[in-house]
Specification:
CATH architecture of chain B: 2-Layer Sandwich
Oligomer: heterodimer
CATH architecture of the largest domain in chain A: 3-Layer(aba) Sandwich
Shape of chain A: globular
CATH class of chain B: Alpha Beta
Largest sheet of chain B: 5 strands, antiparallel
CATH topology of the largest domain in chain A: Aspartate Aminotransferase, domain 2
Radius of gyration of chain A: 22 Å
Radius of gyration of chain B: 14 Å
Number of helices of chain A: 12
Helix content of chain B: 10-25%
Largest interface: A-B, 29 and 19 residues
Number of helices of chain B: 2
Structural class of chain B: alpha+beta
Order of helices and strands of chain A: EHHEHEHEHEHEHEEHHEEHEEHEH
CATH class of the largest domain in chain A: Alpha Beta
Helix content of chain A: 25-40%
Strand content of chain A: 5-15%
Largest sheet of chain A: 7 strands, mixed
Number of domains of chain A: 2
Number of strands of chain B: 5
Shape of chain B: globular
Distance between the termini of chain B: 23 Å
């Protein structure tokens, strides 16, 4: 079997980036760009137009009618913090799921120490959540419901549209963590009825690290996480109330946003529905080959349409860290092993504290790579069965 | 006769100023971004010049596209702005009519 390079860690960050992303970042740094919104001269205006185009492109991708309702942050974590700390106060009640990433869980666990009541809805070991549980646990003091759009460990898609309907009826804001779905699954926030959607720029959206954002439904007010200069209301020492300025203090990552705009425009041309189709085919291909590997346990729902482009698994007789190391050094396959910043999700699927191996695919992965990886797993499984990895 | 860009829009945020420029240009308006005259707005540093005669039409289009405008103004040519006042009394002054 020929050694190749397989990047199967797109849920951590996507690779490779389209050539136009690299070019746009370079042009933004090399070109005549000032600070957007801070001056009236042509170089500042050029930078401002670039940021505006990035916002408009994202609005088109996510079904947002007014681009000003998208605010830029440095990643999904910051967006989630802005939404959670911007809404929840001591005495409030929050509902979340048991498959959340620590970007959601840690802020909520911290708020719990500050007098916030937290309900963590238990998902099935496959990561499935019954949306009726949200209705059942809703209280008069529930201030926020927050769930992942898809688990970053199991890949399981949560029933966000159903949860959004329940939240709308109860008039409780619903925050969706779209870190694993923006760019990978078609999203229309207004159709889905979510109030807040956090996304990162460097995964499915194919942009550079250090970019991300938060969609905020019109009329929903958050306490800003960072206050400071915005280029507006310069004669006042109070934070502006209008968007996007209210949540965007300090100079933006203009070069990063130039790259993000390019990544999103690439996706708009390729079609997110096509990306989704491709990644579902990869999941199906992997599952069908991996079930034939002796001692290989795949987690998550068996139906590929219920998962985003990833698979978490373990090989009997080899710890996940060893599988990850051998896949990298012996086969050139980049995976992610361990707990994936989501201890609660691993508890849910029964792999805490040892963790699992995760393969996560993107639009540039191929079924040939999947076959190669399945073959590699087969080899590791035979060695394990021969007792090579007993500790 | 060439259009005279004697109208001006001010904005709360540079985002809206730049979006207005784009929306109006796509809508067939002649527009020009300028640093906002200080006496008109302390909000965003950028303002947009356009033909005052098409101001209402422009505001309608911007509202439909959810672009927030702070205010519309009219530029008064020098000859009409000659007026005595506390500053520069008797000198011809070009000025913007606030909220025109």
């Amino acid at each position: 079997m020929t050694r190749s390079l397989c990047y199967f860690d797109n849920a951590a960050t996507s690779w490779p980036k389209p050539a136009r992303v690299v070019m746009e970042v370079t042009l933004a740094l090399a070109g005549q760009l000032g600070n957007p919104g801070r001056s009236g001269h042509q170089m500042a205006v050029t930078a401002g137009r670039l940021v505006l185009e990035a916002r408009e492109t994202l609005a088109a991708l996510l079904g947002v009618a007014d681009p000003a309702q998208i605010v830029f942050t440095k990643n999904a974590t910051e967006s989630l913090n802005l939404a959670i700390f911007g809404l929840v106060r001591p005495g409030d009640h929050v509902i979340t799921s048991s498959v959340e990433h620590n970007a959601v869980m840690r802020p909520l666990r911290y708020l719990e120490t500050q007098g916030v009541a937290l309900t963590v809805l238990r998902c099935s070991p496959e990561g499935l959540l019954d949306p009726a549980e949200v209705r059942r646990t809703m209280r008069p003091d529930t201030r926020l419901v927050v769930t992942a759009h898809a688990s970053n460990v199991l890949g399981t898609l949560l029933p966000v549209a159903e949860i959004a309907r329940i939240c709308r009826e109860a008039e409780v804001p619903y925050l969706v963590d779209g870190a694993q779905t923006a760019g990978a699954v078609p999203i229309d926030v207004e159709q889905m009825g979510v109030d807040l959607l956090a996304f990162t720029g460097h995964k499915g959206l194919l942009g550079p690290t250090g970019t991300g954002g938060l969609y905020v439904r019109e009329g929903l007010e958050l306490q800003p996480l960072v206050l400071g200069g915005t280029g507006s209301l310069s004669d006042q020492e109070i934070q502006p109330e209008f968007l996007p300025d209210r949540y965007e203090s300090g100079t933006l990552n203009v070069a990063g946003l130039a790259g993000l705009k390019a990544g999103v425009s690439y996706l708009l041309e390729a079609g997110v529905d096509k990306v989704r189709e491709h990644e579902t085919a990869l999941v199906r291909a992997f599952d069908s080959l991996a079930v034939c590997v002796p001692g290989c346990t795949i987690y998550g729902p068996r139906d590929p349409s219920l998962r985003v482009g990833m698979a978490s698994f373990n090989l009997e007789g080899i710890p996940p860290s060893e599988v990850g190391r051998l896949l990298d050094t012996e086969f050139g396959i980049m995976s992610r092993i361990g707990l994936h910043c989501a201890p609660s999700a691993h508890r849910t699927m029964g792999t805490f504290p040892d963790g699992a191996v995760r393969f996560s695919w993107g639009m540039f992965n191929t079924e040939d790579e999947i076959s190669y990886a399945a073959e590699a797993l087969g080899r590791l499984a035979s060695l394990a069965r021969a007792g090579a990895y007993r500790s | 006769m060439a259009e005279v860009l004697d109208g001006l829009l001010t904005f709360y945020s540079w985002h809206h100023a730049l979006r207005a420029e784009k929306v109006l240009r796509e809508g067939g308006f002649r527009v020009e971004l300028i640093p906002a005259p200080r006496e008109l707005s302390s909000n965003c540093g950028t303002a947009l010049r356009l033909e005052h005669g098409r101001l209402d039409e422009a505001l309608e289009l911007l509202a439909a596209r959810r672009v927030q405008v702070e205010a519309g103004h009219r530029f008064l040519p020098a000859a009409e702005a000659r007026e005595p006042g506390p500053v520069g009394a008797g000198k011809p002054r070009r000025r913007w009519l606030v909220g025109a």
